[in-house]
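pinging the channel bc i need a second pair of eyes. not urgent but kinda urgent?? the chain im working w is below, pasted from the shared doc
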Amino acid sequence: MKICVFSDIHGSVAGMEYALNIVLRERPDKVVICGDLFGARNTGELVALVKRIDAVTYLIRGNNDRDNEVALLPCGMDGYAVMYHFGRTLFFTHGHVYNKYLVPPVLKENDVLVYGHTHCALLQKFNGLFIANVGSVSFPRDGTPSYLVIEECGITLKGLDGETINELHW
């Protein structure tokens, strides 16, 4: 099982094209976009690119995703996604409601919280949980566009070129 995670594309066609090319290169089983896909421009182009993702896709609603944009998606958006892989619960959200300081009550020790929102990538073990902030593929505030790959051994933070920036092993 391989999961690729992106966040905070904010209407950037170039950012979504990067994400799509990464999906083609990484060949994940699942793709999660942790919110703020839209940004008041390029809505039709973004929807067309999302439809080209050839993997099970989860779209999380961010604080900038509006109803009129979400309505154009083939599957809509949810406030979060919960999966069970690698012997643990994985909780994906945007980050404006749940984050490392306000943890969803469903998570227990050694579970995983994955979010975006801050545009700053982060991998750490915090209060017994594996915490992963994907950063942003389009508008990183920490200077490095990034995405996550979650696999059997743990979480890898990667740059757009696929090079490993950081790793967090289970």
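so The first helix runs from residue 13 to 26. and The mean pLDDT is 96. — does that match what u expected or am i reading it wrong
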